[in-house]
Amino acid sequence: MNKHARRAAAATTAVLTLALLATACGGSGGSKDSKSVTLVTHDSFAVSKSVLKDFEKQSGYKVHVLRGGDAGAAVNQAVLNKGNPQGDVFFGVDNTLLSRPLDKGVFAPYKAKGLDKVPARLQADPDKHRVTPVDTGNVCVNYDRKWFADKKLDPPRTMQDLTKPRYKNLLVTEDAASSSPGLAFLLASVAESGENGWQGYWKKLRGNGVEVANSWEQAYYDRFTGSREGKGGDKPLVVSYASSPPAEVMGVKNPPAKAPTGVAKGTCFQQTEYAGLLSGAKNTKGGKALLDFLLSKRFQEDLPLKMFVSPAREDARLPELFTKYGETVDDPATVAPKKIAEHREQWIKTWTSLAVK
């Protein structure tokens, strides 16, 4: 989940959404009104009003959005409510957390329209279609271009670079136990150093002064020197997203030739976000229509500048802000979903003992 999207998800919107749900849904169990459909998601979900209104007009369904905190918290809530969901569709579970809701039977099968336009490598459940790929992106170390230029120091390029003495005390990452990008960065180290080597990598990183923040917001806005909206931190390296540079340029009156932040491409881990029809949903027909909408070309071309991620559909066009200032990562790290499912909890426990305690 790309946290830059939270700029578009104001607290007042969340409050209004909850008020609407209280009357439209009557609590749990999805949309009891056949003319409404409820999307359960994380706080970073955003869509242009005009795009959503067009769907509502064409489909006849009124869409209600129920936000449930960070991705991990929203997924946990969906698992707890299995069979008696808060809505009809869930959006926002990524490949680092996907195994749990699939194993628990949270989603019902549905093959969304437009899935033939999505690359096979993004389809995590191709046989049963319990989840639909919606967007993809990369978690990567970002660097403050001006800071490194002023110090006449080349920024790091790879995972191993981060352990070198010249980058001592410069990096802040997020807690892998509670943060989606923090977990992705942990998985990047597993992909880089192997199941038996990543612990040694983190010992080196800890010895080189890596700081662990509680959340992406704290790391990026409070500790990172390169954030336009930040509080003036002292860390010129931060675990964020390959799409963070365009976010730093968006809305600037006289945009620079280059974004003020860069991406260390040898540190990236690929994330894909999925949506699924919730088992026990009251409005399965509306839920299926909503899934079709999330994979429609209209929504797919809207999401880059709303959630700062790339569309899952190969035929969706990227906005100029992305093509000009975005970073293309040709070979991001990945870890097989089965391996993540088998080891995630133990890896997080071991990581906590190495990086935090």
Structure explained in plain terms:
This protein has 357 residues and is an alpha/beta fold. The protein contains 14 helices and ten strands. The chain has helices at 11-24, 49-59, 71-80, 99-103, 145-150, 180-193, 198-207, 216-223, 244-249, 284-294, 297-302, 304-307, 320-325, 337-355, and strands at residues 36-41, 62-67, 89-94, 107-108, 132-144, 171-174, 211-213, 237-241, 261-278, 310-311. Strands 1, 2, 3, 4, 5, 6, 7, 8, 9 and 10 form a ten-stranded mixed beta sheet that branches. Helix 2 links the parallel strand 1 and strand 2. Helix 7 packs parallel to helix 14.
Average pLDDT rating:
90
Describe the sheet with the most strands: 10 strands, mixed
Number of strands: 10
- Percent of residues in helices comes to 25-40%
How many helices does DSSP assign? 14
Work out the strand percent: 15-25%
- Which term fits the overall shape? globular
Helix and strand composition category: alpha/beta
The residue ranges in which pLDDT falls below 50 over 5 or more consecutive positions are 7-28
Give the termini separation: 26 Å
Compute the gyration radius: what is it?
A: 20 Å
Summarize the structure.
The protein contains 14 helices and ten strands. The protein is of the alpha/beta class and 357 residues long.
Layout: helices, strands, pairs:
Blueprint: H1 11-24, E1 36-41, H2 49-59, E2 62-67, H3 71-80, E3 89-94, H4 99-103, E4 107-108, E5 132-144, H5 145-150, E6 171-174, H6 180-193, H7 198-207, E7 211-213, H8 216-223, E8 237-241, H9 244-249, E9 261-278, H10 284-294, H11 297-302, H12 304-307, E10 310-311, H13 320-325, H14 337-355
Parallel strand pairs: 1-2, 1-3, 6-7, 6-8
Antiparallel strand pairs: 3-9, 4-9, 5-8, 5-9, 5-10
Helix pairs in contact: 7-14
